[in-house]
Amino acid sequence: MTESQTAAEAAAPAQLAPMPEDWRRALAVVAHPDDLEYGCAAAIAGWTDGGREVAYVLATRGEAGIDTLDPATCAPLREREQRASAAVVGVGTVEFLDHRDGVIEYGTALRRDIAATIRRHRPELVITLNHRDTWGGVAWNTPDHVAVGRATLDAAADAGNRWIFPELIEERGLEPWDGVRWVAVAGSSTPTHAVDATAGLDRSVASLLEHRTYIEALTDEDPEKYCRTFLMGNAQALASRFGGRPAVAFEVFAR
Description:
This protein is of the alpha/beta class.
């Protein structure tokens, strides 16, 4: 092996491990309608195909996301689009925590709300979105994504501790759930694991396309072309790190 080959191998991105498969229930917690569709719907489609249960919890209804629509009009529209989007990939449970879009605050109130949903749904896998300040050091992340992602990581532990938020037991009858085994972060610049996206890619495109009102306000490009180009491009970009297969990547934290 030459010195240049050694250097090239050292510089190559690490291969991604397959996601854990020994689980039955997952809970996805994100800030806005469309966060999961931009991030990991192809993986979710594959999981529900295999008989796994996935539920969605959104901190907001995305009411501040479309400049041409006032929040009172926008919120129910985006909720409808999100429910339709989830159904495309086999998800029937979609809940909203009703924090205010654009001004979500990280703190105990948000952690409590997410811990409560974890106790109710009792997942083994929790999914969230990039909680870091940037997207790969290139683009600044939104405060909502940072707050919800970080709070979800914390709430996965909070949910199992009866002495944190004891009011969840006393007032709502939500006993601790210490069964979260992994938190998987979509959209991370430092992924560790991946899921083969082949079977779910077309449905992920259709799922994102259900957010048509948002997409048409975002771009002048044909909505279907926009969705397909974005999602297919991201999945194919990971193929070299996952055995040549298009993939959805996650940074996985084991608990």
